[in-house]
Please model this.
Amino acid sequence: MDRYAVPQALTPAVAELMFMETDPKIRRLEKTLGYTFADPALLQRALTRPAYAREQGLPEDRHQEALATLGDAVIDLIVIQSIMERGVSKKGEITAEKMMVVSLLPLNEIGKALRLQEYTQFGKGEAKQEIWKYSDALTETLEAVIGAIYLDSGMISTAERVMRSLRCIP
Model:
């Protein structure tokens, strides 16, 4: 069978997951991120909102929620490491500074600057309401992308390099 032929039994969403590595739009995002995914399905998952996945009948593990949770933890880890590298060593001080730094991270604004809404697969209602304009949807997507980069590369240093280049962390 031709590599680019879509079998009749596939839904458009599954076909999109299979062939996204050839999508020039996704390649543009990778270029902007400064990272090329070895497993493009991880990026696709990071860009898939739960509402879209439900509407398309995708399996529970095909949307961004778990990756966003992982990305949030990766961000915390990188921020804590940066604080410790500046010589802060007391748990309470590290925790307080981490909370301050993380709460000030403009992740939603960075998501807007990256134009993540153009890449993210929103549910019909989310798209109609343009939720990225007034919610943390782009923060969640950026966290999921960071989680996907961590899983794909297997390295915190890669996620940190991408976060620094995007100015997610000082």
